[in-house]
Amino acid sequence: MKKAFIAGTLQFVGFSLCSRLLEEGVCVDGISNDYEDELEQRVAEEKLMMIGRNALFQSVESVPKEKEHDLIFCCIQDPADKESRIHENLLKECASLSLTHKIPLVLISSMEVYGENQLVIDKNTVPAPTTINGAAHLKQEQTLKKLFNQSGLLKIIRFPGLYGPWQPKSGSIHKRIVASLTGGSPVQDEREERRDLLYIEDAVNALIELSKLETFTGDTVHLSSGKENQWREAAMLLNEKKESGIACKVSEDIKYTVRSSVSLKEGLSAQTEWIRQNLYIFQSL
Protein backbone atom coordinates (compact mmCIF):
# COMPACT_ATOMS: atom_id res chain seq x y z
CA MET A 1 0.00 0.00 0.00
CA LYS A 2 1.51 3.33 -1.10
CA LYS A 3 -1.44 5.71 -0.67
CA ALA A 4 -4.73 5.48 1.26
CA PHE A 5 -7.87 7.57 1.51
CA ILE A 6 -9.60 7.89 4.90
CA ALA A 7 -13.08 9.31 5.43
CA GLY A 8 -13.33 10.26 9.11
CA THR A 9 -9.63 10.98 9.68
CA LEU A 10 -10.11 12.58 13.09
CA GLN A 11 -12.39 9.95 14.58
CA PHE A 12 -10.99 7.54 17.20
CA VAL A 13 -10.26 4.74 14.72
CA GLY A 14 -9.59 7.07 11.77
CA PHE A 15 -6.92 9.06 13.63
CA SER A 16 -5.14 5.99 15.00
CA LEU A 17 -5.28 4.37 11.56
CA CYS A 18 -3.94 7.50 9.86
CA SER A 19 -1.12 7.84 12.39
CA ARG A 20 -0.14 4.18 11.96
CA LEU A 21 -0.11 4.38 8.15
CA LEU A 22 2.01 7.52 8.24
CA GLU A 23 4.49 5.71 10.50
CA GLU A 24 4.72 3.00 7.84
CA GLY A 25 5.50 5.59 5.17
CA VAL A 26 2.07 5.40 3.51
CA CYS A 27 0.70 8.63 2.00
CA VAL A 28 -2.76 9.49 3.37
CA ASP A 29 -5.45 11.83 2.05
CA GLY A 30 -8.20 12.40 4.60
CA ILE A 31 -11.59 14.02 5.08
CA SER A 32 -12.58 14.83 8.65
CA ASN A 33 -16.01 14.90 10.24
CA ASP A 34 -17.77 18.15 11.11
CA TYR A 35 -18.17 18.58 14.89
CA GLU A 36 -20.84 20.74 16.50
CA ASP A 37 -19.68 19.91 20.02
CA GLU A 38 -17.06 22.45 21.14
CA LEU A 39 -14.91 19.93 23.00
CA GLU A 40 -14.98 17.43 20.14
CA GLN A 41 -13.89 20.22 17.79
CA ARG A 42 -11.03 21.15 20.13
CA VAL A 43 -9.87 17.52 20.28
CA ALA A 44 -10.10 17.28 16.47
CA GLU A 45 -7.93 20.38 16.10
CA GLU A 46 -5.30 18.88 18.41
CA LYS A 47 -5.26 15.71 16.30
CA LEU A 48 -5.02 17.67 13.05
CA MET A 49 -2.03 19.61 14.36
CA MET A 50 -0.26 16.34 15.07
CA ILE A 51 -0.75 14.62 11.72
CA GLY A 52 -0.76 17.88 9.75
CA ARG A 53 2.97 18.26 10.37
CA ASN A 54 3.63 15.06 8.40
CA ALA A 55 4.47 15.67 4.74
CA LEU A 56 2.79 12.37 3.82
CA PHE A 57 -0.63 13.61 5.02
CA GLN A 58 -3.02 15.86 3.15
CA SER A 59 -6.36 17.10 4.46
CA VAL A 60 -8.85 17.30 1.58
CA GLU A 61 -12.35 18.75 1.27
CA SER A 62 -13.83 16.24 -1.18
CA VAL A 63 -13.46 12.69 -2.43
CA PRO A 64 -11.14 12.59 -5.46
CA LYS A 65 -12.38 11.41 -8.85
CA GLU A 66 -9.12 9.95 -10.18
CA LYS A 67 -7.43 6.71 -9.18
CA GLU A 68 -4.77 7.88 -6.74
CA HIS A 69 -5.25 5.47 -3.83
CA ASP A 70 -4.70 1.78 -3.15
CA LEU A 71 -7.30 1.53 -0.37
CA ILE A 72 -10.30 3.47 0.94
CA PHE A 73 -11.26 3.42 4.62
CA CYS A 74 -14.65 4.68 5.87
CA CYS A 75 -14.32 5.59 9.56
CA ILE A 76 -17.12 8.15 9.75
CA GLN A 77 -18.97 6.36 12.58
CA ASP A 78 -16.77 5.15 15.44
CA PRO A 79 -17.40 1.69 16.93
CA ALA A 80 -18.60 3.15 20.25
CA ASP A 81 -20.22 6.44 19.23
CA LYS A 82 -23.14 7.63 21.31
CA GLU A 83 -24.81 9.35 18.35
CA SER A 84 -25.37 8.86 14.65
CA ARG A 85 -22.72 10.49 12.44
CA ILE A 86 -23.97 9.07 9.16
CA HIS A 87 -22.91 11.10 6.13
CA GLU A 88 -24.70 9.27 3.34
CA ASN A 89 -23.38 11.45 0.51
CA LEU A 90 -19.78 10.92 1.65
CA LEU A 91 -20.38 7.18 1.89
CA LYS A 92 -21.78 7.07 -1.64
CA GLU A 93 -18.92 9.19 -3.00
CA CYS A 94 -16.39 6.78 -1.45
CA ALA A 95 -18.31 3.85 -2.94
CA SER A 96 -18.32 5.53 -6.36
CA LEU A 97 -14.54 6.04 -6.22
CA SER A 98 -14.09 2.40 -5.21
CA LEU A 99 -16.36 0.97 -7.89
CA THR A 100 -15.17 3.25 -10.70
CA HIS A 101 -11.50 2.46 -10.23
CA LYS A 102 -11.73 -0.99 -8.57
CA ILE A 103 -10.18 0.24 -5.31
CA PRO A 104 -10.97 -1.95 -2.26
CA LEU A 105 -13.06 -0.21 0.42
CA VAL A 106 -12.98 -1.09 4.13
CA LEU A 107 -15.92 -0.02 6.30
CA ILE A 108 -15.32 0.37 10.04
CA SER A 109 -18.38 -1.04 11.79
CA SER A 110 -19.32 -2.20 15.28
CA MET A 111 -20.52 -5.24 17.18
CA GLU A 112 -23.32 -2.92 18.31
CA VAL A 113 -25.20 -3.84 15.13
CA TYR A 114 -26.27 -6.74 17.32
CA GLY A 115 -28.69 -6.07 20.14
CA GLU A 116 -27.71 -6.40 23.77
CA ASN A 117 -29.42 -9.78 24.00
CA GLN A 118 -27.77 -11.26 20.89
CA LEU A 119 -25.06 -13.21 22.66
CA VAL A 120 -24.44 -16.07 20.20
CA ILE A 121 -23.35 -14.74 16.82
CA ASP A 122 -22.63 -16.62 13.60
CA LYS A 123 -22.81 -15.76 9.90
CA ASN A 124 -26.57 -16.30 9.88
CA THR A 125 -27.34 -14.05 12.86
CA VAL A 126 -29.51 -11.15 11.70
CA PRO A 127 -28.42 -7.89 13.38
CA ALA A 128 -31.07 -6.25 15.55
CA PRO A 129 -29.46 -3.16 17.08
CA THR A 130 -30.80 -1.64 20.30
CA THR A 131 -28.66 1.53 20.34
CA ILE A 132 -28.37 4.64 18.15
CA ASN A 133 -24.79 3.71 17.33
CA GLY A 134 -25.69 0.16 16.37
CA ALA A 135 -28.49 1.36 14.10
CA ALA A 136 -26.16 3.89 12.45
CA HIS A 137 -23.53 1.24 11.74
CA LEU A 138 -26.11 -1.15 10.35
CA LYS A 139 -27.48 1.55 8.05
CA GLN A 140 -23.97 2.22 6.73
CA GLU A 141 -23.45 -1.49 6.08
CA GLN A 142 -26.77 -1.82 4.28
CA THR A 143 -26.13 1.28 2.15
CA LEU A 144 -22.75 0.02 0.97
CA LYS A 145 -23.83 -3.61 0.47
CA LYS A 146 -26.57 -2.43 -1.85
CA LEU A 147 -24.13 -0.30 -3.87
CA PHE A 148 -21.36 -2.91 -4.06
CA ASN A 149 -23.58 -5.94 -4.63
CA GLN A 150 -21.21 -8.82 -5.56
CA SER A 151 -18.28 -6.67 -6.72
CA GLY A 152 -15.88 -8.19 -4.17
CA LEU A 153 -14.45 -4.77 -3.32
CA LEU A 154 -16.14 -4.25 0.06
CA LYS A 155 -14.95 -5.56 3.42
CA ILE A 156 -16.82 -4.79 6.64
CA ILE A 157 -14.84 -5.02 9.87
CA ARG A 158 -16.86 -4.95 13.07
CA PHE A 159 -15.05 -3.73 16.18
CA PRO A 160 -15.91 -4.50 19.80
CA GLY A 161 -15.35 -1.93 22.57
CA LEU A 162 -12.14 0.10 22.26
CA TYR A 163 -9.97 1.92 24.78
CA GLY A 164 -6.64 3.73 24.83
CA PRO A 165 -5.22 7.22 24.18
CA TRP A 166 -7.62 9.59 22.38
CA GLN A 167 -10.66 7.56 23.42
CA PRO A 168 -13.70 9.86 22.87
CA LYS A 169 -14.97 11.85 25.83
CA SER A 170 -18.17 9.75 25.81
CA GLY A 171 -16.27 6.54 26.57
CA SER A 172 -16.93 5.23 30.07
CA ILE A 173 -13.27 4.27 30.59
CA HIS A 174 -12.18 7.78 29.61
CA LYS A 175 -14.75 9.30 31.96
CA ARG A 176 -13.69 7.10 34.87
CA ILE A 177 -10.02 7.94 34.43
CA VAL A 178 -10.74 11.69 34.20
CA ALA A 179 -12.90 11.46 37.33
CA SER A 180 -10.13 9.66 39.24
CA LEU A 181 -7.54 12.25 38.18
CA THR A 182 -9.66 15.29 38.94
CA GLY A 183 -11.62 14.09 41.94
CA GLY A 184 -14.84 14.23 39.98
CA SER A 185 -18.03 12.32 40.63
CA PRO A 186 -18.11 8.58 39.91
CA VAL A 187 -19.30 7.77 36.41
CA GLN A 188 -22.62 6.06 36.06
CA ASP A 189 -22.76 3.00 33.81
CA GLU A 190 -23.92 3.83 30.31
CA ARG A 191 -25.09 1.70 27.41
CA GLU A 192 -21.88 0.75 25.66
CA GLU A 193 -20.57 -2.18 23.62
CA ARG A 194 -19.36 -4.60 26.30
CA ARG A 195 -19.05 -7.94 24.53
CA ASP A 196 -15.30 -7.54 24.26
CA LEU A 197 -12.57 -4.90 24.61
CA LEU A 198 -9.49 -4.07 22.50
CA TYR A 199 -6.63 -1.61 22.85
CA ILE A 200 -6.93 0.90 20.01
CA GLU A 201 -3.44 0.34 18.56
CA ASP A 202 -3.90 -3.44 18.52
CA ALA A 203 -7.28 -3.09 16.82
CA VAL A 204 -5.85 -0.77 14.16
CA ASN A 205 -2.92 -3.11 13.51
CA ALA A 206 -5.43 -5.90 12.89
CA LEU A 207 -7.43 -3.58 10.62
CA ILE A 208 -4.33 -2.91 8.51
CA GLU A 209 -3.46 -6.62 8.40
CA LEU A 210 -6.94 -7.47 7.13
CA SER A 211 -6.98 -4.62 4.62
CA LYS A 212 -3.76 -5.88 3.03
CA LEU A 213 -5.28 -9.22 2.12
CA GLU A 214 -5.14 -9.64 -1.65
CA THR A 215 -8.72 -10.83 -2.03
CA PHE A 216 -11.81 -8.96 -0.88
CA THR A 217 -14.72 -11.38 -0.81
CA GLY A 218 -17.23 -9.02 0.77
CA ASP A 219 -17.06 -11.00 4.01
CA THR A 220 -17.79 -9.34 7.33
CA VAL A 221 -15.07 -9.87 9.93
CA HIS A 222 -15.46 -9.51 13.69
CA LEU A 223 -12.38 -8.46 15.67
CA SER A 224 -11.89 -10.33 18.94
CA SER A 225 -9.46 -10.26 21.86
CA GLY A 226 -9.79 -14.02 22.16
CA LYS A 227 -10.28 -13.53 25.91
CA GLU A 228 -13.25 -13.58 28.25
CA ASN A 229 -14.44 -10.98 30.75
CA GLN A 230 -12.31 -8.13 29.40
CA TRP A 231 -14.80 -5.47 30.52
CA ARG A 232 -15.12 -7.03 33.97
CA GLU A 233 -11.34 -7.08 34.39
CA ALA A 234 -11.11 -3.47 33.19
CA ALA A 235 -13.72 -2.43 35.76
CA MET A 236 -11.74 -4.12 38.53
CA LEU A 237 -8.49 -2.43 37.42
CA LEU A 238 -10.31 0.91 37.52
CA ASN A 239 -11.49 0.15 41.07
CA GLU A 240 -15.10 -0.25 40.01
CA LYS A 241 -16.83 -2.65 42.37
CA LYS A 242 -19.79 -3.26 40.11
CA GLU A 243 -19.15 -6.02 37.61
CA SER A 244 -19.67 -5.14 33.97
CA GLY A 245 -19.43 -6.93 30.66
CA ILE A 246 -21.49 -9.26 28.53
CA ALA A 247 -20.57 -12.86 27.80
CA CYS A 248 -20.79 -13.44 24.06
CA LYS A 249 -19.75 -16.21 21.68
CA VAL A 250 -18.77 -15.38 18.08
CA SER A 251 -18.41 -18.19 15.54
CA GLU A 252 -14.78 -18.92 14.66
CA ASP A 253 -15.37 -18.64 10.90
CA ILE A 254 -16.29 -14.95 11.14
CA LYS A 255 -13.85 -13.97 13.89
CA TYR A 256 -10.34 -12.49 13.65
CA THR A 257 -8.34 -12.75 16.86
CA VAL A 258 -6.24 -9.65 17.48
CA ARG A 259 -2.68 -9.95 18.72
CA SER A 260 -2.20 -8.01 21.96
CA SER A 261 0.86 -5.78 22.31
CA VAL A 262 -0.03 -4.83 25.89
CA SER A 263 -1.90 -6.36 28.78
CA LEU A 264 -5.18 -4.79 29.86
CA LYS A 265 -3.42 -3.31 32.88
CA GLU A 266 -0.66 -1.84 30.71
CA GLY A 267 -3.15 -0.44 28.22
CA LEU A 268 -5.20 1.27 30.91
CA SER A 269 -2.01 2.67 32.44
CA ALA A 270 -1.03 4.07 29.03
CA GLN A 271 -4.45 5.69 28.65
CA THR A 272 -4.29 7.11 32.17
CA GLU A 273 -0.86 8.61 31.57
CA TRP A 274 -1.97 10.07 28.23
CA ILE A 275 -5.00 11.72 29.89
CA ARG A 276 -2.79 12.99 32.72
CA GLN A 277 -0.52 14.71 30.18
CA ASN A 278 -3.41 16.10 28.13
CA LEU A 279 -5.93 17.13 30.76
CA TYR A 280 -5.66 20.71 29.47
CA ILE A 281 -7.59 19.65 26.35
CA PHE A 282 -10.59 18.60 28.42
CA GLN A 283 -10.41 21.34 31.06
CA SER A 284 -9.88 24.33 28.79
CA LEU A 285 -13.55 24.92 27.96
From TrEMBL:
Transmembrane segments: none
NAD-dependent epimerase/dehydratase domain: residues covered: 5-208
Domain of life according to the entry: Bacteria
Xref: Pfam families: Epimerase (PF01370)
PANTHER family, alphabetized: DTDP-D-GLUCOSE 4,6-DEHYDRATASE-RELATED
Similarity-based family: Belongs to the NAD(P)-dependent epimerase/dehydratase family.
Protein name per its UniProtKB record: NAD-dependent epimerase/dehydratase domain-containing protein
